[in-house]
Design goal:
The chain is an alpha/beta fold and 382 residues long. The longest helix is centred in the first third of the chain and has 19 residues. α9 crosses α10 and α14 crosses α15. The chain has 16 helices and 13 strands. The chain starts with 12 loop residues before the first strand and ends with a helix. It has two domains: 184 residues, Rossmann fold, CATH 3.40.50; 157 residues, Glycogen Phosphorylase B (Rossmann fold), CATH 3.40.50.2000. The chain is globular and about 60 Å long. Helices cover 45% and strands 15% of the residues. The structure holds uridine-diphosphate-N-acetylglucosamine and uridine-5'-diphosphate (UDP). InterPro entries: UDP_GlcNAc_Epimerase_2_dom, WecB-like.
C-alpha cells in the first residue's frame, strides 16, 4: 500500500476480487495484476475454492496468495448446497473486509453469489465478462441465469465484445455503466504463451504425451458442461469413433467432475489413440492448444482461446453465448449428437479446403489488453 512522506496512505479505493473456479482464476489473474499496479487501489483477494486442485494450479502460476480461502468444494457438490454455503461464507468475508467494491467474473455460482452478497450489503459490483447471452435459460445451465442475475446488481459491466455490450443495452443496462474491454482470457493466454516461449520448462509433461503420437494429427478434447451430462456417453462414443481413424492422436484432459468421469469410464472405448489425462496446468494446456490440429470442446474459455492460435473449434453444445467465433468462421456449433460430431470432425480432417477456411488465426474475443482497460476504469471510479 503506497504511503506519503507523512505516512498517510494514498489508497483511495479498496476492492475485493472474488473467484472460485479454474476459468475465473485464469480470467481474473491479469485483472488482479493490473489492479495491483494501480497506485490508488488496494486489491484484496477472496477465493471460495469452489474448485480446489484446478484453482490451486492457477494461483501457483499467477503467484496470487489469497487473503481469504473459503475451501468450499466438496466432491460432487449440489448447486443448492454450494449456493447456500457461498452466500453465508462470502457474507462473513465482506463484513470483515468492508470493501468499497467487489469484483466478480463470468457466470459461476461463486460469481453470482458473490454479487448477491455484495448487493445485500450495498457494495457496488464490477462484473468482468458481462453480457454473454445464449437466449436460452437452460443452455448453458445454470450459467445463463447467473449472468443475468449479476447484470441486475452490477454497476460496472465489462463486456468483452460489441455483441455482449449490445445484449446489455437491449436489457436496459444504463449506457454509462457498460465498457467494451475485450476478454481477459486473451490477456492470460498471450502472457502465458510469452512466458512459455521464454521458459519452455514451465510445461510439465504435455510434450511427452503428444510426442507419443508421432506424426499423427492431434485433437484436443474437453467436456464438462452440466447440461451435457445426459449426452456425455454419446459424446464419448463419438470421440472413440474419431480415434478409430488411426491417423489422429486424441489428448483429453478429463474434468474432475464425477459425472464427467463416470460417463467417460462407461462409454469411451480404450484406445492407443486416446490419451486420457488429468486436467492440465494452464501452461501445458496452452501448449496443447498450440500443437493441436483441431479442438473439440464444450468449454467457454477454450472456445475463446483456440481461434487466437488459428485452431478450428467444434463446439459440442446446442447453443453458445459466444457467437463471435462462429461469426468469424473459426468455430462451429455441432451440438451433442454423436453422428454430427463424427461427421464434422471427419470433414475437417479429410478436406483441406474446409480446414483452411476455419484455421485462420483470429481473435474476436480481445487483443490482450482487457485487464488494463478494466483496472483503469475501476481505479478512476467508472
Ligand atoms: C463450474 C461452473 C461452470 C464452469 C466450470 C468450469 C457453476 C455452477 N459451474 O462447473 O460454470 O464452466 O466450473 O470448470 O459454478 N472438482 C474437483 N476438483 C476441482 C474442481 C472440481 O474434484 O478442482 C469436482 C468436485 O467433485 C466438484 C465437481 O467437480 O464437486 C463439480 O464442481 P463445480 O464447481 O460444482 O461445478 P463444475 O461442473 O466444475
Ligand atoms: N484449461 C486448463 N487445463 C485443462 C483444460 C482447460 O488450464 O486441462 C483452461 C483453458 O485453457 C481455459 C479454461 O481452462 O482457459 C476453461 O475452463 P473450463 O473449460 O473448465 O470452464 P469454462 O470456460 O467452460 O467455464
Amino acid at each position: 500500500m503506497p504511503r506519503s512522506a507523512w505516512g498517510i496512505t494514498s489508497v483511495s479505493i479498496k476492492v475485493l476480487a472474488v473467484f472460485g473456479t479454474r476459468p475465473e482464476a485464469i480470467k481474473l489473474f491479469p485483472v488482479i495484476d493490473a489492479l495491483r499496479a494501480e497506485p490508488g487501489v488496494d486489491c484484496r483477494v477472496c477465493v471460495t475454492a469452489q474448485h480446489r486442485g484446478m484453482l490451486d494450479q492457477i494461483l501457483k502460476l499467477s503467484g496470487i496468495v489469497p487473503d481469504h480461502d473459503l475451501d468450499i468444494m466438496v466432491p460432487g457438490q449440489t448447486l443448492d448446497l454450494l449456493t447456500a454455503a457461498l452466500l453465508v461464507r462470502l457474507g462473513d468475508v465482506f463484513d470483515i473486509e468492508k470493501p468499497d467494491r467487489v469484483i466478480v467474473q463470468g457466470d459461476t455460482a461463486t460469481a453470482m453469489v458473490g454479487a448477491l452478497a455484495a448487493y445485500y450489503r450495498k457494495i457496488p459490483v464490477s462484473h468482468v465478462e458481462a453480457g454473454l447471452r445464449s437466449g436460452d435459460i437452460h443452455h448453458p445451465w445454470p450459467e445463463e441465469v447467473n449472468r443475468k442475475i449479476i447484470a441486475t446488481m452490477a454497476d460496472q459491466h465489462f463486456a468483452p465484445t460489441a455483441t455482449a455490450a449490445d445484449a446489455l443495452r437491449r436489457e436496459g443496462v444504463p449506457e454509462g455503466t457498460i465498457f467494451e474491454t475485450g476478454n481477459t482470457v486473451i490477456d492470460a493466454l498471450l502472457a502465458t504463451r510469452a512466458r512459455l516461449l521464454a521458459d519452455p520448462t514451465m510445461c510439465s509433461g504435455i510434450d511427452a504425451v503428444i510426442d507419443r503420437f508421432g506424426a499423427k494429427r492431434i485433437i484436443a478434447v474437453t467436456t464438462h458442461r452440466r447440461e451435457n451430462f445426459d449426452a456425455m456417453r454419446g459424446m464419448a462414443g463419438a470421440i472413440g469413433r474419431i480415434a478409430a481413424r488411426g491417423d489422429v492422436g486424441i489428448v483429453f484432459p478429463v474434468h474432475p467432475n464425477p459425472n464427467v468421469r463416470a460417463a467417460m469410464a462407461d462409454a469411451l472405448p480404450s484406445s492407443d489413440a486416446i490419451a486420457l489425462i488429468e486436467p492440465l496446468d494452464y501452461p501445458d494446456f496452452v501448449r496443447l492448444l498450440d500443437r493441436s490440429t483441431l479442438v473439440l470442446t464444450d468449454s467457454g474459455g477454450v472456445q475463446e482461446e483456440a481461434p487466437t492460435f488459428g485452431k478450428p473449434v467444434l463446439v459440442m453444445r446446442e447453443t453458445t453465448e459466444r457467437p463471435e467465433g462462429i461469426t468469424a468462421g473459426t468455430a462451429k456449433l455441432v451440438g451433442t449428437d454423436p453422428a454430427r460430431i463424427v461427421s464434422e470432425a471427419t470433414k475437417l480432417l479429410d478436406d483441406n479446403k474446409a480446414y483452411d477456411a476455419m484455421s485462420r488465426a483470429h481473435s474476436p474475443f480481445g487483443d490482450g489488453h482487457a485487464a488494463t482497460r478494466i483496472s483503469r476504469i475501476i481505479a478512476n471510479g467508472g
